[in-house]
Amino acid sequence: MSNTASIRGPERDEIVSVWNDQIKMRVRIAGTGPALVYFHPAAGLYWDEYLDGLAQDFTVYAPEFPGATPGDPYAIYKVDEYSDLVLIYEEALRKLGLKGAIAVGQSMGGMIACDLAAVFPDLFSKLVCLAPSGMWRDDAPPAIAQLYASAPEKIPGFVFHDPSIPAAQAMFSLPEDPEEIPAAVAQNVWTLGCAGKFMWPFPEHGLRGRLHRITAPTLVLWGKNDRLMPVALAEEFNAGIGNCQVRLYDNCGHILQMEKLDQALADTRAFIA
Fold first, then answer.
1. pLDDT-derived band of residue 5, with 50, 70 and 90 as boundaries?
2. Homologous superfamily of 4-272 in CATH?
3. Distances (CA, A) of 77 to 2, 50, 197, 202, 253
4. FRET label pair with 18: which of 63, 89, 128, 173, CA 20 to 30 Å apart?
């Protein structure tokens, strides 16, 4: 895993007005080539080496969850229901002219991508889900409530099998300037809170009953040591989606694209090539 200082990150932003002009959705963009939409997890958009890798072959569009964009925290108040959230994302993609794009979603982003693919079956050409949320099993319950109730120093252990790897350390590091730390902490807490509107105490919005509507070929990637979303939940997506492949990674937690970067990139590229 290379140092995050080498991450190129987004190259430009586009602001899309949606939901009767009540929400200005920021979309971060990088790369050239066919369109690929990335849906980020509950903690917000963190541009990592996986996205950099995809941007070598695709134009990556990464819309930010309402309320998660710095400087626009109250956008979340304009979203009343989870079904509205799905429509907001569809409107943004439609205005960007991204029908037929490839979709990649991680955790909460995977849940949103699956629902978009189920409600609008012709929206995506292919779908890649990285440990998506949205399912519940009594014998393998997601640990969303535990994560939200945990002290900040405990969170890395929920999402990484090995929180000591450089990528994990960089992801949870605070700004070097002490004066910037309070704002950074507040932004992180607020972003999780925005997602919590639809994720707390666990995400269950009926996705299981809609999975059969997904027609796009789908790849599901999952870490076998995922503490947040137990790997047994991969079986639910495999059973519910008609054209679905599943890849499981050993010694890997929830943020699999960081712990198994090369493998995740290779599997993703092979599937969407």
1. low
2. Alpha/Beta hydrolase fold, catalytic domain (3.40.50.1820)
3. 39, 31, 10, 20, 32
4. 128
> Which residues, at least 6 apart from 55, have a Cβ–Cβ distance to it below 8 Å?
8, 30, 31
Q: Is 216 in contact with 126 (CB distance < 8 Å)?
A: yes
pTM, entire model:
0.96
> Residue ranges of the domains in the chain?
4-272
Q: Which residue has the higher pLDDT, 39 or 203?
A: 39
Residue 239 near residue 218 (C-beta atoms within 8 A): no
Give me 224's structure tokens.
Answer: 């076998």
**Radius of gyration for the alpha carbons in the chain, expressed in angstroms and rounded:** 17
| Sign of the CA dihedral with 19 first, then 41, 3, and 174 last | positive
Instruction: Write the pLDDT tens digit of every residue in 108-158.
Output: 999 999 999 999 999 999 999 999 999 999 999 999 999 999 998 999 999
First to last CA, the chain: 24
Q: How far apart are CA 239 and CA 80, in angstroms?
A: 31
Q: What is the pLDDT of residue 6?
A: 85
Q: How far apart are CA 148 and CA 155, in angstroms?
A: 9
Give the DSSP letter of residue 243.
S
In 96-165, DSSP assigns E strands to: 101-106, 124-130
CA dihedral 55, 258, 82, 22 (to 10 degrees): -50
User: What was the pLDDT predicted at 1?
Assistant: 36
